[in-house]
Amino acid sequence: MTEHDAERHAQDADIDSDPDEPGVEMRDANTKAGVAPVDGNAVVTLSGGQDSSTCLFYALQVYNEVAAVTFDYDQRHGAAEITAARKIARQADVPHTVLRMNTLAELGDAALTNAEIPVEAEATAIGGNTFAAERGLPSTFVPGRNLLLLGAAAAWGLPRGYDNLVTGVCAADAAGYPDCRLEFVTALNEAISLATDTPTFAIDAPLIHRTKAETWKLADDLGVLQFIRFGTHTCYEGAHDDEHKHDWGFGCGECPACDERRRGWEAFDRARTIKR
After folding, report:
1. How far is the C-alpha of 132 from the C-alpha of 130, rounded, in Å?
2. Which domains does the chain have, with CATH numbers?
């Protein structure tokens, strides 16, 4: 075990071993989500966060066989993310692989890969991520991240019989990352299909036009709301303990990721309260 792996392993105890709703019957979740089965297999990019985990349970309802791939790219909240992803994959009973992609930290400075750069909803040049600042993007934006990670996930999945790639990218996120937009997903789908000579390859992005509140509702419809609520990790600062537990899950409560997760939960909770 390398020093890096040992550090990641040591963080496993920082996340509660059981979400508030243990033993979720994920493969037998109800069908209120209205998803139709597909005759194919899929690899899911699983970060351990709300969006990708919801996509994993969606995929289990849609595809014949499902595997999950998680990326370790020295992200600032990587220990909490990867620990959550491992536990979620075990709960879902799917094959799970963690791929090392530390090159991202060397390509450009961003708050996600450089702890010295502050997390800002809109990057400032003085903050350190000048590339994002020039484009009005958050300081967490890592140039080329989804281009590389989704390409790597496809490269891992296709030789193993997974012609579909399920990802939690969402154009409606407040961050507004350009590599989460439909135009990017469509273009990358075509590029990977051509690059691998696989006409059947498809990127499935079920959250692409959903708001965060609608993503919470999808988790509810799939029967895994409580698991997503307390078994996933979103916080950029890696806060995941009883001191940082909220109605919407765990997190520092102050970073942009926590703020968006909280606002989405509150909108979803208001809507379902009105319907009762």
Report:
1. 5
2. 3-12+33-108+143-275 (3.40.50.620)
